[in-house]
Amino acid sequence: MSTIRLMLVDDHDVVRAGLKSFLESQEGFIVVAEARTGEEAINTSLLTRPDVVIMDISMPEMSGLEATRRLKAVYPECQVLALTVHQDKQYFFEMLAAGATGYITKQAAPEELVAAIHSVAEGHVYLQPVLARWLLDDYHRLLTTTHGELHTAQREKRIDKDLEVLTQRERQVLEAVAQGMTSPQIGELLGISPKTVARHRERIMNKLNLHSAAELVKYAIRTGLIEV
Question: Cβ(39)–Cβ(11) under 8 Å?
Answer without folding.
Answer: no
